[in-house]
Inverse folding.
């Protein structure tokens, strides 16, 4: 080093990304326990496609491949996307989503550090808009009766669409809780009816465990100072408040805060998606604003929109507002405190 | 207990201070040659008063302060002036500057030393003597002390004494406080008197318990009401603005000085020098410097200004793998262009550097906007944004985001996981902005000169024509040239009007 400071207390970008990957491990384990090994296959496909796309794009853009490929950022995108997709989705679905996320959402915007939008969520939205039917193939959780797919059966289904003898797709998959509630409410049933009956299929399923596993990973990221508390706290709190207000107004039509916090991508969103530093705000107040607004949007899209979950769209919409949020939430610079807020006159 | 205020950001750093505090301060042997730069303070360089061959006495004024922001330079020992010539000076650029080179005669013969009767003298006279004595801030910023001792129209209520010394490795202030606390306390009283301050707060980082104890004893022995305040060891606790905030909760407004909010801040080394100058008539010709890092015997020495760094570090016995010397601390210091450069008033520490001590960082990666830099920035800036603006040469935006409030403490660079040399980008942006400002001023000046010249030429031509007209018009009514002369006058008038119009247009285009 030729100029000060000569000391570094920092880890590396690779270290940051590695911590994110490690933090996802508990959730992956719960995923496998709940939905079978299909998710591991999805993770493998996504990782391979992500690394290949990243390498290709770096080469095309004339950047050095090795240092950027080893920064692990492509893997983080791949894993987050793979975990958002149904674990029995066909292999090409995750491949298309991942390739789009890396090639378009990341590299066409200038590569690591320059993307305006969260690449994993761009990939997810492209898929749910383009292939809505394939995006519903969530396997029935273990809690429900039905055939469980092992490694080989899952792989055969994901890669070739082959179902084990005697099994029907409908028996293997189940609608997600958010989906069930949405469809049933549309059929004029009350929440008490929907949630109180086992015919509600997947309600309740193992989502609580998944949410807890993501939260555990999130706490690890907090402890490691990879993320700050602002985004997860603001997001979960705002989601709970908005859900609570609607629930208080009409408990038969609007599920309570706990429902919205537990199901769907709320917790992974709070700790892993909205905390993406590149596409998120950098100021403390900005983070609070960003996350709280995303929570409100999540709720509105879930309840009034056309899609079962709203996290991905909420994130992308709020990504657009980040430059504005950052510009208007700068900390008062030392010696430039606004008058009346204490400090120097 | 005084309530302390926690400034934003900062870093907990390993201080590496214990290694250089094991031995007492020792004087260095006289080198065979002293190189005394004439610009050792912020502001204009001093004007040389000696010429080669001349004999000088220890403490003799060899550089006369020039301009307001300037102070005197003195011969560090008695001897003969070998040369007054540009030599390499301790500056990151490695450029040369005018120096007085002195060959010591080993006799250490002093000039006549005249203590200053500061209690009975006119304050401005005292400040002038302090200016002549070459006193400048020894914390590293070398701002002429007499200016800081002149509150002007402001009332300085609180004098803050900076004994925080927050950079790792540096222990010169710590050792000075341990060994010479009574002199520092005397210096504080002089500064307090000159400023008319009511309250004195002495801020010392809590990792210097011996210094705190020594200062406390000296304050009590002197019968003063100065308050010694241990401050948390969080870098940069010793930054002037940070220390003032920690102790008083007041922020110096951007672009203003502590005086403007009734504060003044002096480093302990500067106050020690003040006591020596006022009570003993000794100008600033030596300072305590830490020699540390990759050396076998880290220590503090009292070095004459002008001592080559090679002689200085020899006292610490640098190890063979030393590859460079850093002046200052590891957070804000810089690599010296070579061991031949002299110790100056700003030389608080020299760190022998080796690849093992300060390992090279991996190549920078792109900024991922993780925001760690903003978390640690004591000025509450947005370092990642400043970096983006500097990188894209968007200097206006960088200024809008308070680039010039950056104190270059290095916290942001130190925590950047992408290993981006952030501070370098800010220095670059600042220098570009200064350069453009200078260019703009130069262009303005050139334009005004050009306008003035055109106006002068037109006026002269007009006057010549009028004189001619008066001469000829007075003698002959029917001069054939008369019409020609009138036409020339008209022409001159219109020419005078035109340049003005052109400049207005230029001004609009600019």
């Amino acid at each position: 080093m030729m100029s000060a400071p000569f000391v570094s207390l920092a880890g590396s970008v690779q270290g940051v990304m590695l911590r994110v990957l490690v933090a996802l491990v508990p959730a992956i384990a719960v995923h496998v326990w709940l939905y079978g090994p299909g998710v591991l296959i999805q993770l493998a496909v996504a990782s391979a496609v992500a690394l290949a796309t990243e390498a290709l794009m770096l080469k095309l853009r004339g950047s050095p491949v090795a240092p950027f490929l080893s920064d692990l950022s492509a893997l983080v995108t791949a894993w987050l996307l793979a975990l958002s997709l149904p674990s029995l989705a066909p292999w090409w679905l995750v491949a298309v989503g991942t390739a789009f996320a890396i090639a378009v959402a990341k590299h066409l915007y200038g590569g690591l550090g320059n993307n305006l939008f969260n690449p994993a969520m761009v990939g997810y939205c492209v898929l749910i808009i383009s292939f809505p039917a394939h995006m519903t193939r969530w396997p029935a959780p273990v809690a429900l009766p039905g055939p469980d797919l092992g490694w080989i059966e899952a792989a055969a289904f994901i890669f070739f669409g082959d179902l084990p003898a005697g099994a029907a797709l409908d028996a293997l998959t189940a609608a997600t809780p958010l989906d069930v509630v949405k469809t049933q409410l549309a059929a004029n049933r009350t929440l008490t009816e929907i949630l109180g009956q086992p015919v509600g299929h997947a309600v309740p399923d193992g989502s609580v465990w998944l949410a807890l596993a993501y939260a555990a990973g999130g706490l690890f990221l907090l402890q490691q100072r990879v993320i700050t508390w602002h985004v997860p706290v603001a997001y979960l709190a705002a989601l709970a408040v908005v859900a609570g207000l609607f629930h208080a107004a009409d408990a038969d039509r609007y599920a309570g805060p706990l429902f919205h916090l537990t199901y769907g991508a709320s917790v992974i969103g709070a700790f892993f998606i909205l905390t993406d530093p590149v596409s998120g705000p950098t100021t403390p107040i900005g983070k609070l604003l960003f996350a709280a607004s995303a929570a409100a949007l999540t709720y509105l899209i879930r309840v009034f929109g056309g899609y079962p979950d709203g996290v991905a769209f909420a994130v992308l919409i709020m990504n657009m507002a980040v430059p504005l949020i950052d510009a208007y939430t700068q900390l008062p610079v030392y010696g430039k405190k606004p008058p009346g807020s204490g400090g120097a006159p | 207990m005084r309530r302390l205020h926690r400034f934003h950001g900062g870093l907990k750093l390993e201080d590496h201070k214990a290694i250089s505090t094991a031995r007492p301060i020792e004087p260095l042997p006289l080198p065979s040659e002293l190189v005394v730069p004439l610009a050792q303070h912020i502001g204009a360089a001093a004007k040389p008063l000696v010429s080669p061959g001349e004999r000088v006495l220890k403490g003799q004024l060899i550089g006369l302060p020039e301009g307001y922001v300037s102070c005197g330079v003195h011969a560090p020992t008695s001897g003969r002036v070998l040369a007054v010539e540009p030599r390499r000076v301790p500056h990151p650029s490695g450029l040369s500057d005018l120096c007085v080179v002195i060959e010591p005669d080993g006799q250490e013969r002093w000039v006549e030393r005249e203590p200053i009767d500061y209690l009975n003298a006119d304050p401005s006279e005292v400040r002038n003597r302090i200016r002549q004595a070459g006193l400048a801030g020894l914390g590293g910023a070398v701002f002429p002390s007499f200016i800081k001792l002149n509150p002007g129209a402001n009332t300085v209520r609180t004098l803050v004494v900076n004994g925080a010394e927050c950079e790792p490795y540096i222990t010169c202030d710590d050792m000075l406080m341990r060994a010479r606390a009574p002199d520092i306390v005397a210096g504080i009283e002089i500064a307090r008197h000159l400023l008319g301050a009511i309250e004195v707060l002495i801020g010392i980082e809590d990792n210097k318990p011996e210094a705190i104890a020594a200062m406390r004893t000296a304050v009590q022995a002197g019968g003063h009401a100065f308050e010694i305040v241990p401050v948390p060891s969080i870098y940069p606790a010793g930054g002037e603005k940070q220390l003032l905030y920690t102790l008083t909760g007041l922020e110096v407004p951007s672009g203003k000085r502590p005086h403007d909010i009734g504060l003044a801040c002096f480093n302990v080394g500067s106050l020690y020098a003040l006591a020596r100058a006022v009570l003993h008539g000794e100008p600033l010709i030596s300072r305590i410097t830490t020699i540390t890092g990759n050396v076998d015997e880290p220590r503090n020495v009292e070095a004459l200004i002008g001592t080559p760094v090679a002689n200085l570090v020899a006292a610490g016995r640098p190890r063979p793998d030393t590859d460079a010397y850093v002046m200052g601390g590891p957070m804000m210091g810089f690599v010296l262009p070579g061991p031949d450069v002299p110790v100056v008033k700003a030389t608080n520490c020299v760190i022998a550097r080796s690849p093992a001590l300060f390992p090279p960082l991996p190549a920078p990666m792109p900024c991922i906007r993780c925001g760690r830099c903003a978390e640690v920035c004591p000025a509450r800036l947005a370092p990642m944004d400043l970096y983006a603006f500097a990188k894209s040469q968007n200097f206006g935006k960088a200024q809008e985001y308070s680039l010039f409030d950056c104190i270059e403490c290095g916290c942001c660079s130190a925590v950047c996981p992408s290993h981006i040399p952030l501070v370098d980008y800010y220095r670059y942006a600042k220098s570009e902005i200064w350069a453009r400002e200078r260019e703009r001023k130069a262009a303005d000046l050139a334009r005004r000169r050009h306008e003035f010249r055109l106006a002068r030429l037109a006026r002269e031509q007009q006057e010549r024509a009028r004189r001619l007209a008066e001469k000829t018009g007075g003698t002959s009514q029917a001069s054939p040239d008369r019409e020609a002369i009138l036409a020339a006058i008209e022409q001159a008038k219109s020419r005078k009007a035109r340049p003005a119009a052109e400049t207005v247009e230029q001004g609009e285009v600019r």
In short: Residues 361-455 of chain B form one domain.
